[in-house]
Amino acid sequence: MVNIWGGYFASNQYKCIMNSGYVDYIINGPGDEAFPQLLDALENDTPYELIKNLIYNLEGHPLKTEKAHLFDQDALPALPYDYLNEFYPLKDYFGKTFMGSKTIAYHSSIGCPFKCSFCAVVPIYEARWRGKSAQNVFKDIQYLNKKYGGTAIEFHDNNFFVSEKRVVEFSKLMLENNMNMEWWGEGRIDTIDKYKDDSLALMRKAGCKMIFFGAESGNDEILKQMSKGGKQTGEQIKRFAARMKRFDIIPEYSFVLGMPADTEEQVNRQIDADIAFIKQVKAINPDTEIIIYVYSPVPTEGSELFEKVKQQGFKFPEKLEDWLDPAWQNFDLRKNPLTPWLKPYMVDKIKNFETVLNAYYPTVSDLKLTNLQKKVMRSLSSLRYNNDIFIAPYELKVLQKFWLKYRQPEIEGFYME
Length: 417
Ligand code: B12
Ligand code: SF4
Known about the structure:
By secondary structure, the protein is an alpha/beta fold.
């Protein structure tokens, strides 16, 4: 039997996978061409060594072939929704979310033109991005709406908003055709902060309800280390939250806490500073949704950040089996990494703050939360939130787990019915 793996984990952690002896080939990044080409080569016993986006072992060492160009997304054949529907009824995948009763998941572009030094997308796409035209995105959405009843959209692109022109064209098409659908996507603060006011107003009118942004940190030095700086600053993050409020678009800000620093005290101080910063953002625009990640390194070889991470003694598992260890699984879920600079009391502090924050400001994306539940949680957590008492919030944790069954959108996606 031949074993072929693909996806972000396989592409980024290829060394231990290829050394494990369980896997013969990895499709490194996009598999749309590489995978069928590899299957052809294996079936017909022809050479596979020149197939792009492939990893295989040569004399016991993993070898990566050249990366393929990202192909023109408009040149791809139309997605075979009707065919898919015969086997996997699409209606089963259109869940009820806070945006609409039947939410479509849609990928309108691949890659990302940026190189944030903590991001798993960078080693795969190497700062390249290609998107479908606004017209083709719209055509698919309209088809899914008319034929299958889709009423809202989650754009799963790494960066839906790279081109203002494309977003504006898409918004115009949605409006001109009275689509009346709400949508969500992921973007960058520094990119969208350059959008014209008219574009933002148009997007909102065309259904743009919430945008996920990597705010990451309020500290400009850290933003620089993450390769976000120069363009994104703490001041801009706050200003932009206020700007989004003006246009009634909910900014969903994701933060990465627990970055390496030279001393334990500095790491701890930065966590406190990030917590204080998040509270400032919330004070500016209380509707801002906050997502908290704990920094889990990805192998962005050559970046200043990854060098620092290695210097501080961090190492990925050398054996594939080690990834099955619950501690490494937690690492992969960005919740409790095994980074040498982060002490257990710091992880507790981050998680406790998250518990209090989610009680005081529950996500709007969890439809099942009742007003009564929100009110109770808010009053129970207000003393803690307002006085920075985050230690041991067991009463909130128990209620979130058993009464609210609180759902964190970053782990399980938006609440769906
Ligand atoms: C949607 C999504 C989610 C949804 C998933 C919903 C669902 N039911 O599927 C939710 C919100 C639940 C989610 C959760 C998480 N996610 Co997520 N998610 C995504 C997102 C936005 C899209 C993934 C997707 O569907 N892509 C569509 C497919 C077709 O594209 P693709 O995966 O790139 O696949 C191509 C190739 O890789 C290859 N390929 C892929 N698989 C295979 C398999 C084989 C055999 C072959 C040959 C080829 C192949 O071919 C495909 C076509 O070219 C990506 C970012 C992105 N835009 O890619 C992040 C992303 C995958 N998620 C990520 C993370 C970190 C998480 C969380 C850990 C976050 C958290 N703290 O909780 C959790 C993990 C949850 C879990 N239990 O595992 C990271 C992964 C980083 C990594 N592995 O190093 C990403 C890349 C985001 C990021 N920039 O950091 N996620
Ligand atoms: S902008 Fe987002 S997707 Fe792009 S490299 Fe940075 S973190 Fe990754």
